[in-house]
Specification:
Shape: elongated
Strand content: under 5%
Order of helices and strands: HHHHH
Structural class: mainly alpha
Distance between the termini: 95 Å
Radius of gyration: 35 Å
């Protein structure tokens, strides 16, 4: 019984080896040459060339306009007032110590502490 197993294992190994040997030249024929991969006519480069981008660079996405910093600080102050906690007002004052709203936040903090 073990001799039959060896024959089958050998036949299976031979079949796999033969399939690999046959498929290797076929794959080599259909794969493009490494020098052609970066040429203009190659399929993988079609998107980059169509968008006039340099190969290997990401497409530049337009940046949205920057928010007005004063509005962002105002919204943060309003959020701190809505939360109405010592921690939220202290955080606002720590983040924006020189802003005119920090004086209002300090006054709110004093009235909240009483």
């Amino acid at each position: 019984m073990p001799s039959v197993f060896r024959v089958n294992a050998t036949a299976k190994a031979f079949t796999i080896s033969l399939a690999f040997t046959i498929s290797l030249p076929i794959v080599a024929v259909f794969l493009p040459e490494p020098d052609r991969l970066l040429q203009k006519g190659h399929l993988s480069m079609a998107k980059a060339i169509a968008s006039d981008a340099k190969p290997g660079t990401a497409a530049a996405k337009p940046m949205p306009p920057a928010r007005d910093p004063k509005l962002a600080v105002e919204e943060e102050y309003q959020m701190a007032r809505r939360q109405n906690t010592v921690q939220s007002l202290e955080l606002f004052i720590a983040r924006h110590p020189d802003d005119p709203l920090a004086a209002k936040a300090r006054a709110d903090l004093r009235s909240l502490s009483r």
